[in-house]
Amino acid sequence: MKHALITAGHKGIGKKVTEQFLKKQYSVTVHFRSDKNKVRELQKEWHQYKDNVQFVEGDITSKADIEHVVAQVMERFGRIDVLINNAGPYVFERKKLIEYTDSEWYEMLEGNLSSVFHFVKAVVPIMKKQQFGRVITYGFQDVEHTPGWMYRAAFSAAKSGLASLTKSLALEVAEYGITANMVCPGDIVGDMKESDIIKARLLEDKETPVGRSGTGEDIARIIEFLCDENSDMITGSIISASGGVDVVHKSKKQAPGR
């Protein structure tokens, strides 16, 4: 049985990704930061998978916590086939770069970039021994072109760096049967993060060219495909799923008066 480690796999898009892999008969380790009440809910909701899923608490901005999470995976399941870096902080307040506090800036870098570095350092040696592995990171639309993103400078800087990290990693580990790819969700908000495609099609979204909102299931299906053993020709790729929405440049139309 293959094993997937999914950060923040207990909520939002991460929850849909976890469910996708459980349904495909993977065992899964779900990392969470602190929401033990949510974990208790999921232990009931996912009772049928109780032998194949574990929850491990940790702060992804802490190298020690990351190493603890990986150690817990190996202690119980003995392998890691898939690493999905779903967790990543985001500053929802729209502010210019010079308005960020030092702590906000470093949280964006540590949570979205350095955390992946530390997870990769801990997990790739395991995958090399297995001669198989799949690493997934998250970005945003056109991140590979390092676009300017008004009021999201810290987040976009971290994710642009992560795009380069993902592409570089893909080249370095290809000979070991390991792939690394980045998936870029579109404007998936609120309940849609844990929703499915069928439900989304019942709700018209006039701002999305395809006519419906994106969902967590959209992202989960892409990730599942990338992690298939026969998807080894896809590596170092950045795949966007925005439904045609220009996510980055929406901010210019909605810019607050300053």
UniProtKB/TrEMBL annotation:
GO molecular function list: oxidoreductase activity
Instruction: Give the top-rank taxon of the lineage listed in the UniProt record for this protein.
Output: Bacteria
The reply to whether Transmembrane figures as a keyword in the UniProt entry is: no
| Classification via Pfam families | adh_short_C2 (PF13561)
InterPro entries xrefs:
NAD(P)-bd_dom_sf (IPR036291), SDR (IPR050259), SDR_fam (IPR002347)
Q: Please verify whether the record's keywords include Cell cycle.
A: no
- Keywords tagged on the record: Oxidoreductase
Which Gene3D superfamilies does the UniProt record give?
Answer: NAD(P)-binding Rossmann-like Domain (3.40.50.720)
- Family per similarity comment: Belongs to the short-chain dehydrogenases/reductases (SDR) family.
Q: What is this protein called?
A: Short chain dehydrogenase family protein
